[in-house]
Amino acid sequence: MGDEKVKNDALQVIGMFQLLPRLVVFDLDYTLWPFYCDCVSKREMPSLFPQAKGILYALKEKGIDMAIASRSPTSDIAKTFIDQLNIKPMFVAQEIYASRTNKTDHFQRIHTSTGIPFNSMLFFDDEDRNIQSVSKMGVTSILVDNGVNLGALRQGLTEFSQNASRSEKNKQSWQKYSQNSNSSGKKDED
After folding, report:
1. Which of the residues are catalytic?
2. N vs C: which end of the chain shows fewer Cβ within 10 Å?
3. Is 177 or 189 the better-scoring residue by pLDDT?
């Protein structure tokens, strides 16, 4: 499937949802590309998973910001590959550095640099420990097995939409509760 076809399919998937993330964050190794950066040479020509580039183009066309959160111990190779693949301008933030823990620090930095709340983010990664820790921050997080693809995108947007709806309902319930509490308090004063 060519990049243009995938892009059009991704645009259709995105078009199915009214609530969209403000920022989509991708891991690199085994999420956007099918290898570990530290196992290849800078001289090699990298490639993305087959549907990744079309999905990136679709998100860009829809005006959804994108970022990278990678724990790569070879950030120089990762950045070289991003340049070689001509995808660097697509990302508003790139947090690529070695870390022995999960990616919560990466997300704190992304939040600080973009100002986008965690609950307005969607994250794709191939490691469950990253999914678990970042989810606790309020980020909708999707575990991918064979890289980001249209199925993962659909799943991510579905879960994001459900989380956003749930959050909005909770907010509305809280506002009603607060209004009722305030109005009942005023009656007691009279």
Report:
1. 27, 29
2. C
3. 177
